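Homework help board

Subject: predicted structure for assignment chain

Our instructor gave us this sequence and asked us to write out the predicted structure in C-alpha cell form, then describe one feature. I got the C-alpha cells but I'm not sure how to describe them. Can anyone check?
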Amino acid sequence: MPQDIRNIEEICVKENRIFDGKILNLRCDEVRTPSGHIASREVVEHKPAVGMIAVTEDKKVLLVRQYRYAVHEETLEVCAGLIEEGEDPVTAAEREMQEELNVKARNLYRIGEFYASPGFCTELFTLFLAEGLEKSSLPQDEDENVSVLEVAFSDIPVMIKDGKIRDSKTFAALSWLMAKEGIAP
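My C-alpha cell output:
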C-alpha cells in the first residue's frame, strides 16, 4: 500500500488548562490544522488504565457490577482500574483483580492496548486475559461498592445483543473473547 505523505498533524498554538484533578485534567487548546485553520480541541488528559478478562476453570467470565454515577446506572464491566504512579500495567492488573474480584491469576496474558475515546481523551487502556484464578484479596477502594457476577461464555452474545453490556472496554474485551473462543455473535 502506498504511504500517505501528506501532513496530517495538528500543531498546538495555545494550551489552555481548565482543570487539574485526581484522575484527569482538562485542556481547551487552539491548534493549527494542516490546512492552516485555527480550531479548538477539548482534551481530557486521563491516567492510563488496565482491564482483565478473568476466566474461571469452568469457562465463565468474572464481571464486576457497580453503580456509575456519571451515567446514573448500574453497569456490568470487566475488572479494571487506573495504573497508579510508579506501577506497570501487570502490577496494576494484579492489584485490581485482588481488590475487585478477590482473585489472582497464575497466567496473565497481555492482549493489547487501545484508546478509550481518542477524539477527546488520552486514556490508554491495556487489556489482559487472566486464567488460572486463585483466591486472593486486597481491600476494595473506599469509594467503590462492587459485586462479582459469573457469566457463562454462551451468555455473552445475548448480553451484548440485549444491551446489558454498555461499557466500551467490556464490549471490546468480550468481543475479543468471543472471537478467540469461536462464539458466534
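Reply (TA_rk): Your C-alpha cells look well-formed. For the description, you could write something like this. The mean pLDDT is 94. That's the kind of observation they're looking for.
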